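Can anyone check this?
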Amino acid sequence: MPIKTASSAGHLAAVLCALMAGPVGAETPLSAIDWLSSSVATPAGSAIGRPAPTAKRDEAPVTSGGALPQDVAVSVLDAPSPDAIGLLSPATTGLPRDLWGMGLEEEVRSAIMRDRGDHLPALQSLTMTLMLAEAVPPPDSTGKGTLLLARIDRLLAMGALDQAASLLKAAPTGDPELFRRAFDVALLTGNEDQGCDMMQATPDLAPTFPARIFCVARSGDWNAAALTLRTAQALGYVTPEEESLLSRFLDPDLYEGDALPPIPARMTPLSWRMFEAIGEPQSTLSLPLAFAHAELRDTAGWKSQIESAERLARAGVIAPNVLLGLYTERLPAASGGVWDRVDAFQRFETALRAGDPGAVAQSLPAAWAKMTEAELEVPFAILFASDLSRLPLTGQAGRIAFDLGMLSPAYETIARTRKPESPREAFLIGLATGSLSGALPPESLGRAIAPAFLRAGAAPEFAALLEQRRMGEAILLAVEKIGRGVQGNLSGVTDGLAFLRHVGLEDVARRTALELMLLERRG
C-alpha cells in the first residue's frame, strides 16, 4: 500500500468528529431512484426529499382519469422555494410560468415521478423540457424543494445526467439529498474528484464511511483511508460486502488471485467506480440507463462505448454527434451485432461525404435497416436527413430519404418539396404541414391520429386541468395517454395529440404523430 502521511491527521480528525456526531452510516430515506449511493447520512430534519403533507380536502385527488375542483391551499408568502429553480425560461419553452397552477405539491410530485411510457423521442424531449422549466411552485408548496428533487430524479431515470447536473448546480448547496445525486452524477461522468471536492467543501454533510474512504483514497492519503476502514469495520459501520470491496480498492495487489468481492444485488455508482478501480469494471447494459454514461469514457472499450452511446442516443439525452464520432472512430474489429451496424454506418457515411448518389443509394438501405433494428432512426435522421434531401435519390433510397426527412427537425421544409408517391406519403406530408385535407390515413394508428389534426380541442379531463391552470400536469397526462394509447386504447392518441395542438405545442404534436407513423414503439 502506498505510504502518504501528509494529511492523515486532518482526515482522521474529520472521522472522529463524524463518529461523535453519530453513526454516519445511518439509513437514509428511500429514494424514488433506488440505485443512489449511500454517500451521506440524511439528518431527520433534512428538508429536500421529504414529501410534504397533503392538504386536507373534501374532493378526491386528481388521477389520470380526470380533474376535480380543489380547496384553496395555503403557503408562506414571499418565501423563496427551490422548486422554482429551472434552466429554461418561459420565453424559451413557450410554457407559462404558472405551470402547476392550482395543483397540490404531492399530486404534482406523483405526476412527475409516474412512469408513463414516453418512449417516443418527441415525448421524451417534451418531458425533459418540462423538468427543466422555470415555474412558480404549487400554492401549497412547503418551500422544501420536493418538486425540485422529483424533477432531478425524473431526469436521472431518463439518463439525462448532464441536464440533471446543470439543475443541481443551480440548486442550493448543503442539502444531503441533493448532494447524493450530485455525487453520483460526478461518479458516473468521470468527475469523481469534483464530487469529493464538493464533499470536502460542505462541512455540514455527514459522509458515510464508504464515501469518505473512497474520497480520502482519491486524495492520495492511503494511510488515513485504510485506518478509516478498520475503524468503520470495528464499529460495525460497514457491511462485510462493503469491507471486502473497499479493502481491494485500497490495496488490489494484496488480493491478487483471490475471488472477486460479491457483486451487489443493487449496484450503486460508488460500487461501480470501485469495481472499475480494481480492474473489474461491470457491464452497464443491465444497469439503469444513467450508468451508461460511465462507459462513454476512454477507459472503456470501444464496443462498450458504442453500446452505451446507442442507449443514450436512443433516449435522446446525448447529441447524435457523439454516436457519429464513435461509429467512425476506426474500422470494426469483427463482424456480427454492433460491428455489422458500425460497418453499414461507415459505408453509408463515406458514400454521403463523397456526394456520390449511386453509392448512397446502394449503402443507405443497409444502414437504415441497422439503425431501425437498434431504434436509432431519429438520431440517424438528425445527422443525415438534410444532406440526403439534396441528392437526386429515387426508388427505395428515395423513400428512405423521405422517411428520414419526416423524422428530422426539417420535416416541414422537406415535406413541402416532396410530391407524394403513395397515399401513405400524402398522409405523412399532411401531418408534417399540419393539414390533412384530402389525405386518407393508411391504417388504424393513422385513423387515431387524423381526428387530432382535423379538429383540435381538449377532452373533458384536460379541460378540467386547464380550468385550474394545471398546464404541467395536463402535458404529463397527454404524454401518458399517447404513450400508453399505442399499446391499447388508441383514443388516448387522439386525445393527447389534440390537446398538444390545443395549447399551442404544434411542433411537438406533429413530430409525435410522424414518429407514431414511422417508428415501431408499440412495446
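Reply from J.R.: I decoded it. The chain has five domains: 8-15+213-277, 26-44+81-207, 289-327, 338-420, 444-518.
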